[in-house]
Structures are given as C-alpha cells and as structure tokens.
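Researcher: Please translate sequence to structure tokens.
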Amino acid sequence: MTAVMLLGLAAAVGAPGGEELVSLVAALGTAGGVSAFVSAFVVASTFSYTVAQRRRELGLLRLAGATRAQVRRTVLAEALVLGTAASATGCALGRLGAPALVRWLADVGMAPAGFGLADGAWPLHGAFWTGLLVALGGVAVAARRAGLVGPLDALRAADLDSGAMTAGRLLWGLGLLLTAAALTGAALAGDPADLLHRKTYTTRPMLLISACGLLAPLLARPLVHLLTWLPVRFTSYAGRLVRGNAAAAVRRTGAVAAPVLVSVALTGSLAGALDTVSAARTAEAAARTAADLVVVPSSRPGPLVEALRAVPGTAAVSPTAPTTLALVDPDGNAVRAEARMADPAGLAVLARLPVRSGSPAGLGDDAIVLPAEWGRTAGEPVPVIRADGSRTTLRVAAVLSDGLGDNGLYVTARNAPGARVDRIEVRLAPGMDPAGRDTATARVREAARPYGATVFTRDDWLAATAPANARIAWLRTALVLGLALVYTGIALANTLLMATADRRRELALLRLAGATRAQVVRLVTAESVLVAAVGSLLGCAVAAVQLGAMRAGLALLGAPAPWTLPWRPVGLVAGGCVLVAAACAAPAAAWALRHRPVTAAAR
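Model: Translation complete:
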C-alpha cells in the first residue's frame, strides 16, 4: 500500500503545479499516513496475540537457559526477517499496481489528463524502509512482553487468559483517551473550525482507535455479555459456550476484533465527517439566501439583469460574481482571498448573513463586508489590492460570523474589476398565491430564454451546485479508505485462521464431550461473528465520538449542525467483516477437526 501511495505521490509532485495537484498530493499523503497507522496497529495487535500463543514455547527457551534479552532479540529477529520479506514483496506488487492507480486517478478526474508515473527509485526505497520500521515498531512492545515470560510458563496448562490488562496497558489506554479529550476540548475552546479540517478528522480518530485497542481486554467482556444476552436466554448450551469462549480468551477476542475496529472506526469517522460537513454547508447555503429563483447566465448578463427587473412579480434581483482580493495586514503582507461582487440593495434583501457587527446595508464603493476571521472591526479602514492590481482603502461595513468559511467577502462592482456575473438571485413578490408564483416563475424563464440563461428554483440550484465537490471529496475518501480496508480484511482473515488453528486441542475436547463436527464448526463460526460484532461496536463508538465533536464545533461556529450518520458505508464494512469472519472461521475449524479427537486432544 505504501509503495503504491509513494509512487503516486512522486508522480503528483513531479507534475506541473496547480490546485488540482495540490489536492491530489494531500489525498495521497493522507492515504499513505492512514495505511502506515493501520499497518502498525494491526501488526502490534497480531504480534501481541502471537506472543501469548507462544508463551509455553518462550517459557521453554527460558527454562533452557535463554535470557530475557535473548528472547526479546529472537522475537525482533523474526519480525525483521518477516518484515524484510513482506516489504520487498509489497514493493514489487506496488510497482505493478501503481500504473492502475494512476490511470484511475486520471479517469475519475482527480488528476489531470496525461498524468503518469515518474522515474526514480526513492518511492520504493521509502516504502521498503517504512514497511520495515512499521513491522519493528509494531513488534517492539510484544518483544518486550516476550522477554517477561518466565521459565515456569513452560508448565502452564490453562488456556484462560490472565494478566491481559496490565497496568502499563491500562495507563497508556487511559492516557490516549485523555489526550484525545484534551485535544478536542482545546479545539472547541479555541478554534472549532479545526475539527472540520480533513487533516484533523482523519488523524484524530487514530488516538481513540489506539485507546480502544489497548483497553480491549477491559471492554471485551461487557460487550460480549451484552451481545449474547438474547442467545443465552433462547439457546440451551450454544449461547453460553460462545459467550464463555469469547469472554475467557480476551487476547484472542482483542486480536480478532482489532482489524474490525479499525475498519469500522475509520469508515464511520471519514464518511460521517464528509457527510456532516457537506450537509452543514448545504444547510448553511440554504439558510443564507432568501432567493426564490437563481438564474445562471451564459453570456454577459447586463441586459439580462434589466430584463429580469422588468418582469412583473419580481421583488428583488441581485447579480453576484466571483472575484479575488488581497487584504493588506498591519505588517504590510498581502493576503489573497476569494470574494464576491454584490449589489448593495440586493445583498440587503436577498442575503441572510450572520452579522456580528455593523450592517451589510452599508456596503458601497468605499466599503467591504468580511468575516470575523480577518480580525477587523466595523468601521475600520482596510487596505485592499483589487484583482487588476490597483490599490484602495475600504471601510468595514459589516463583520460576519465565520461559519464554515464560505461567507466570503463582499464588495461592489467598482472594487471587482473584470468580474463576470455567474448567478443572478431573484426574489418573487411576497404574498403571492401558488398560481401567481408559478406565473411569475414562467415569466422569469421567458425573460431569460433570449439570453441563453438557465433558471433554477432555489432547491434545484442548491442540489446542482453541491454534487461536484461532494464527488471529488468522496473519491478522496475512497482513496484513503480503500487500501486500508483491504489490509484490515487480510489481517482479519489471517488472525482468524491463525487463532482457529491454535485451538485444535480445545475443539477436540468438545468433540470428546459429545459435540458433532458440524456443531463445533457452527460454534467457532458464531464466536468469530460475535467477536467481529464486538469490534464493530467499538468502531461505531469511536465514530460517534468523532462526529459528536464535529457537531459541537459546528454549533459553536453558528453553522447548522445536522446529524448525518453514515449507516450505509458503516453497515457495508461491518457486514463485510462479519462475512470474512464467518468465511474464514468455518473452513479453519473444519481443517482443525480433520484428525481424530483422541489424537488431537493428546497433543
């Protein structure tokens, strides 16, 4: 995964600059960072369980005279060998898969036409050493724990987990929870808008995921009992056996639940954040315009504006256009900003702006309306550089609440040289009955037709202007999540196969107790599905905390804060994890039962 991302990143960095490529570089960098985190998390969880599985073996090494340092070095050496082989294989596969990624990026519009791979070996070197460091970093804690195995652990016969929740693990888990809470609280108190940035809502859930992974032995048992309450009540023995096995083997439960936790938490957090911000922007745009119709011109709209104003039944017509400005701060630095040219009279009637101080009615050729993030006050003079490079000083007519950063700056046509009107907002006369509104709308369409303009209702215009950005944002999210989900799926399958194969003696004892082969297979499958459900619940909890923090940030910004829960992507990912768990556990259990029960139980 890292090799593919780095090869794509090298191609994007080497291509001619542009806003499109800047966004692509950010998306590829984020995807690479998420992949590295997922890899480290899953490797650490898997090796921790592996060390627990090999406790007797490591105890025998200690009994034979191996020191703790030698045991630690043995585990690290194994990780080094496996990491080297896996990193080399990943680089080879990444080099083969990178052209497909580049083609996909160009096909979906995330990269410009002709975008291709760049020459150079540094991405493969970076991927190789990153993979090796991730493997060694993920194994470091497990190696330390392996060194703590005592010689008498070679005689350990019980399969019940003991000491899974160590003091260090508890402290680290609680510390990560407190760190996440402190960062969120600081953002809410200082800069709520930071919670809405892609970098924040992509990286912040990692703290919660790591905390839940560390606290899994503490959280697993209550969740297992919760999920098995009904099966235990309505089954004779199967529900109790499933609950007992999952609750007793908390290390195995945590190792299997870890990939599911990562998958569901990242999907819920990223998809939910995207939906939340998109819904909030749409709601904010809808709340801040009083227009009934929006006319999108296809040519110079001068005569069109006058034609619309002459239509009977229209109360206000306000043309607006995008422009750029540069505001000069007290230190003399010019800060570029997007702005909109607006008609002062139309702005006062058609815009529902979140005014913090001043009045938009004061907008004129010598004035400007701007958001509070610029740190200006109403009536204060502001040096401005217009789009054509000319300079002037404008008075602040009104200061707006920041909202989601889309309030913009407003100036008149005189301060927006070269600006071309991209929409004309029209408000119909109030008090009209539905038939009268339909008639007025038809007259507006008739007046706009000779100019080749398109007339939208407000709802149609809001829907038409939202999808383009949403599509690119969803593609970026798919890029970040796609490879991470593939990795967690492979890790889930690998952990289940490894864990089930290690239960040969336990399953043989169930056969000797009278259970049929089919019953044992169903029991193992049900337990795996239960553990996948535990991981899904933990992942949903992480996503809920993340989305709750974002909603609180929106409320503090004064922006609409609708609840947008990503049920569909979370349900698909959780369902996929359950299917992978069932598909891997059943054949693995059948394979573990291939020997006679008496023979397997004696091992």
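Researcher: Any highlights?
Model: The longest strand covers residues 314-328.
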